[in-house]
Amino acid sequence: MLDVSERRVCRVLGQHRSTQRKVPCGADDEEALTEDIVALAKQYGRYGYRRVTALLHAAGWSVNHKRVERIWRREGLKVPQKQSKRGRLWLNDGSCIRLRPAYPGHVWAYDFVEARTHDGRKFRILTIIDEASRECLALVVARQLRHEDVLAALAELFIDRGPPAHIRSDNGSEFIATAVQNGSAKWA
């Protein structure tokens, strides 16, 4: 031990002196409350700590919203940014629905890109990529593309590389995605 006063040590460290005297003690129910908060945050993915506090009150917990917020931050819980309905990663029950690619050939995605030539005439490009490796599998360029063209491009890729586990599209109005899905299911 150094022969230095508590007051001087606290001043050098920039701490208040009361932090040296008060022994922090957690509540007896801290672990159970933390487990319930984490479980509710997993179950309701879009709820913040205030709504989770209300759910805890409904479940019988007598807990302050400040305490829930402190545990929420300590556990690193966050409400994800709101996403558009088309690209959201969860259903209304909070579960995740978007499939993440695990290996090359697991998930393929296809979509259209549109551009114009120097004289103003438009053309479309069908792009098919492997989401895991980010490899461009096919580019089909034409003035007009129909779902038969998409099926032909996918059939050629299925023959060359084999069918993927999943195919993702944006289900846009530019082609009939159900016809493509029904057609690609025949080769899988």
Automatic annotation (TrEMBL):
According to the record, the signal peptide region is: none
Q: What is this protein called?
A: Transposase InsO family protein
A GO term for molecular function: nucleic acid binding
Task: Name a Pfam family for this protein.
Answer: rve
What superkingdom does the record give?
A: Bacteria
All residue ranges annotated as the Integrase catalytic domain in the record: 100-188
GO biological process terms, semicolon-separated: DNA integration
**Species assigned in the record:** Sphingomonas xinjiangensis
